[in-house]
Design a protein that fits this description.
Two copies of one chain form a homodimer. By secondary structure, chain A is α/β, with parallel strands linked by helices. Chain A folds into two domains: 252 residues, Metallo-beta-lactamase, Chain A; 40 residues, no CATH class. Chain A contains eight helices and 18 strands. Chain A has a seven-stranded mixed sheet. The first copy, chain A, has a seven-stranded mixed sheet with strand order 7-8-9-14-15-16-17, covered by helices on one side. In chain A, strands 10-13 form a two-stranded antiparallel ribbon. In chain A, helix 7 packs parallel to helix 8. Chain A starts with a strand and ends in an 8-residue tail after the last strand.
């Protein structure tokens, strides 16, 4: 299957622990890697878990708390040391280039590639990337500082041929590449066979939503419809709901309620407070509301299969 | 024995590898920890190898290449999250506070402690710290950017009492604390017993020298005299001596020559180029010149015992 695969690189909240690195996710869409947040040590995690450095052309930074971007400068430096040539697109708060400027200036002409900064819109949903493999939408969440989540929607891929129909209509081999792309077949006599009679799609375009750091925002459930996998922060369990509200974070129950109301396929919770050596309490709390909940762990790979289309 | 103990936290050069973190060392002098360089991930290594975060009041940054300081902002942030109150002294190039300013400004009033910046002198040797446990001298080395090494010299500790002499001169218990600090004993009749007749010192004050990143600078051997343990970079083996010269780094042979000519007790080599998966070639090269050479490894602890004093 064409990959649409998430690798979790970090699961801690602001304070890293012996086992947990700060936030970073890598999404592999057809062998292109999209990096989401870049806490300290992300480049080390990237190497450890086999994410392909040279295939990262897009980085998304949700907000400017250090645990979500302190690893960026090291990664940019490593790209330069490796002689990277491709443009690098970074989607972040407009202040980030200024913040990193004194460090980037240090490279002078040694930065072998171009960084293209894209400021995020923290007021409304925004399509920030639309290329041949994916569409990315940012959406504002509620945190102490401006913060966005991201939804990655796969572009429809090539269609699967229905072999028996191809034989039945005697479609020549030279036509197959066009049929896979969605074209109708027209035979020598001008007879049109609609594409839908010749192909099937294995799954609907796949969708991954990344939602951290934020208070519980019930209204978001609308935009999570048709999301296969939702990553939602769950910094605390419900005993600390007051603290979650005060610090603009969510509880495991709130993350699960979000998954439930938006009917996503699967929920992954992460961004755990350093107080939890064992996160079973968070897992149990979420599962009691939304059973298909996973606990994020460093190095976890989730291969998103996508929902079957009802034909 | 009162600790004078080095913990190696990172051994890579600019490009970290799967096994090697960028440079950072922690020196424990009588349970005070001195952090030397702070590459990305240092705070994670600190937790992993049991260095006491709350006992770090002094950080020394050799130079402003990212692999020697990109972990500093994360550590400063963690100190704030933990509610640190003690002043933190940072010895570095005078540009570092400016470079980190946009990130530090983000804390606003949330930085619970004071950072006191001490600019290094890259023109001449300089005593940069002199407190009750240690004297630290910085010395300029030769790199592409201004860079300093550091020598940590232990302050003489409390003296060991010679029990038989204490009995012979009938020294009262109330006097012992003063004798341990070096005072002479004066008995009821005014008879003076010199301190040296009552005490002995187990070892000479201990010295650790940290020397990276630098070309081979033979003249430095003078200041390494009486150093117990010398950490000297050995980015390359001698086959790459030309490249070492061009990039202002050293070979393993050069590091060993330095150890040899300055007659240090032990040599540790590190800051290995990412090209070496196995550093045996570097170890063998150094040992052939200076047998008492160790290869730096993440988590290695070297308890420095000090030379015996010849009484």
């Amino acid at each position: 299957m064409i990959p649409f695969e998430l690798t979790i690189l970090g699961t801690s909240s602001a304070l890293p622990t012996l086992k947990r690195y700060p936030t970073a996710h890598a999404l592999n869409v057809r062998e292109r890697f999209f990096l989401i947040d870049c806490g300290e040590g992300t480049q080390i995690q990237i190497r450890k878990y086999g994410v392909k450095l040279s295939r990262i052309d897009h980085i998304f930074i949700s907000h400017l708390h250090g645990d979500h971007y302190f690893g960026l400068i090291g990664l940019l430096s490593t790209f330069a040391l490796l002689g990277r040539k491709n443009d690098l697109h970074i989607f972040s708060h407009s202040q980030l280039p200024e913040i990193l400027k004194p460090q980037l200036d240090f490279f002078n002409d040694d930065l072998s590639y171009k960084i293209i900064w894209h400021p995020l819109n923290f007021k409304k949903n925004d399509i920030i990337l639309d290329n041949e493999v994916v569409t990315v939408m940012s959406f504002p969440v509620k945190h102490r500082v401006p913060c966005c989540g991201f939804i990655f929607s796969e572009k429809p891929g090539l269609l699967n041929l229905q072999k028996d129909k191809i034989e039945e209509y005697k479609v020549p081999v030279s036509w197959l590449q066009y049929i896979k792309k969605g074209e109708d077949y027209v035979d020598e006599n001008g007879l049109v066979v609609p594409n839908s009679a010749l192909t099937c799609q294995k799954h609907l375009p796949r969708r991954y939503a990344f939602c951290t750091d934020t208070s519980y925002v019930p209204e978001l459930s609308e935009i999570f419809e048709n999301v296969d996998v939702l990553y939602h922060e769950a910094t605390y369990d419900s005993r600390y709901e007051k603290r979650a509200n005060e610090t603009f974070h969510s509880t495991a129950a709130q993350a699960a309620n979000m998954a439930n109301s938006s009917r996503v396929g699967q929920l992954i919770i992460g961004h755990f407070s350093a107080r939890y050596k064992d996160v079973t309490v968070l897992h149990d709390e979420a599962k009691s509301i939304f059973p298909n909940t996973l606990i994020a762990e460093e190095g976890m790979v989730i291969s998103i299969e996508g929902r079957k289309e009802i034909l």
